[in-house]
Amino acid sequence: MSKAQFMYVTYIAAKPERIWTAITDPEFTRQYWDAENVSDWKAGSRWEHWRTEGQRQLAMVGKVVESAPPTRLVITWAPPADEANPAKHSRVTFDIAAIGDMTRLTVTHDELEPGSSMLHGISEGWPRVLSSLKSFLETGRALRTWAGR
């Protein structure tokens, strides 16, 4: 069975370095994502995704596959319970490209099981998170990412 993929592209009035920081700095991610992405962001390193809304909780884990600041970041993605099983990991690629006075951010989440709860969850989650990121960088005000959920 072939794997599924989800892709989201947005254009943001910000420099690539600012977008890189917004994805990788836990203080920054907390402001628009209600979560912290924690790592040293070097290839081979572990990364953790901590929910900060309500009680702090480890939500996702993985490894940094590729790190080329500020243009490309590739990580594996799995619930903590599946950390030891690489077959259960999906992959997220952040491609960040300057285009004039804006930046194109392409997020590709692939290696997903077709019809899985993970595919369903990220198909709703990535548009919310990335819309909030765009709003926060352009206006200084994040969206209520998980409102109405």
Q: How would you characterize the overall build of this protein?
A:
It is a single chain. The chain has a single domain, classed as 2-Layer Sandwich (Alpha-D-Glucose-1,6-Bisphosphate, Chain A, domain 4), CATH 3.30.530.20. Strands 1-7-6-5-4-3-2 form a seven-stranded antiparallel beta sheet. With 149 residues, the chain is of the alpha+beta class. The termini are far apart. It is 27% helix and 39% strand. The mean pLDDT is 95. A hairpin with a 2-residue loop joins strand 6 (90-99) and strand 7 (102-112). The chain is built from three helices and seven strands; from the N terminus they run βααββββββα. It has helices at 16-24, 26-33, 117-139; strands at residues 4-12, 35-38, 46-51, 57-68, 72-77, 90-99, 102-112.
